[in-house]
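User: Fold this, then the next.

Assistant: Folding the first:
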Amino acid sequence: MISGRYSALWIVCAVLLNACSGPLQQVEQDSPPLRIIAEQDVKELTPRADPIVMTGNQSPYWVNGVKYEVMASAANYREAGIASWYGQKFHGKATSNGEIFDVYAVSAAHRSLPIPSYVRVNNLENQRSLVVRVNDRGPFHPDRIIDLSYAAAVKLGFVDSGTSRVEVEYLQVEGVEDRRHPEFGGNGAHFLQVGAFQSRQAADQLMLEMEKLTTEPVQVSRFEQRGGVFYRVRVGPAAEEATLKSLQKTLASQGFGYSKMLIE
């Protein structure tokens, strides 16, 4: 999320004391979700060969007048520093690559890693370790290197403290295509849009139906149009356009009345 993150410790200070000075008084507060989970409730991730497309990877980019650049390659990336986490304030909002942030999913924001990518985060204060998927930008706080979802912070054991010293190591996944490269024309990611709804519940239902029909990723993304909020359901990105065209024919034969090919 292109926004500052604030630790749980600062949030408590703001809520209980209402006397903190500085930037905290000028921002909306983040918080844990209403449904608190335990470490055993957090599902582990298995890295997959998600293609890297231009969406979310524009470089350079600017936030608050500061210039940032996305890595051309993350091979051999390893860095130690401070991790923070973000929660309910951003739940249900679009991440930098158009996916929907879920506080209960294992994800992360990073300023310069290509997205999506996978990293192993080692908590140097308690020796816990977790694989997370980077799909967002941030944290734009000079003293932090990664911003983890609430669920990831639960698993790594630093929700209460708000921050922790960690080591972040990029995981090389076999078969990943970097479609930012010239041979892909700088983009070339194929999607099949299968629906758009004003109801998030309807979009989620269609997503579940699509996941039964294809092994390609299915995502719900939020967008605003003509003053209203809508949720679109898309299959992809897919390596081969033919895969999505075949799915499009299957959907037509089963009575799905709408689908549209997209290239980003």
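Now the next one, as you asked:
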Amino acid sequence: MKQKEILSYFNLEAHPFSKELKTDELMNLPTLAKSEQELMLLIETRGIGLFTGPSGCGKSSVLRKVATQLNPGLYRPFYISHTSLGTTEFYQSCAVALGLSPLGRRSKIFRRIKSFITDLNDQKRIHPVIIIDEAQALSGDTLQEIRMLTNFEYDSKNACTLVLCGHSDLRQKLQLNVYSSLANSITYSIKLDALPAQETYTYIESRIASTGATAALFTDNAKKLIHDISSGILRIAANVAWRSLINAYQHKSTQVEKEHVQMVTSQ
């Protein structure tokens, strides 16, 4: 059994639930669109922002879409995802993301990063947006020190926007007294929720339609069960939908029925 055989059987031009989507193919679902708007507000407001949600709910997709929408003459996004590191290694990763040399002592790398941010603002009039994904994996020492990346001119100037993006437990972690300095510096907090049922249905239908299918490939009962199993988490919904499609192919069905989705839970 090959993927191309499954796609051909259902008249699909590509894998409908692949995460390898172009930015313009990302869903404009109301739940995701709300977070996009809030992120844009955070970037305009500047400072430190918190963006959390359950694993697989679409946070990285929202970040990617927002990054491509920024005016390149005003903003420059930088993405960092290697976060399960010590503070020195984190600053080295940050320097690499900014296109700087990661060599030298931690204090030297830190000054190099701060100088780069200042130059980008004052000389080039471009506001840097530093996105730290998987921020729940940051060490305690790094979290305590990270606020200093945004401290300019006696903490009176927002020279960059820092977005801390992570799982829901990051929000709980920041409630600890040891992180009060960072928590009190957060200018805007965004929470991405799981999708309601109708948006899960829309997601499945739109992904199928975007890959060439014209008929209703998933029955209403199948879509409902996919939502129930995934609890509205995009990544889970996509995986369950794809495995259900494989089950339908193996049983030579022209539609994905509820029983094909039920098989996923026992596989």
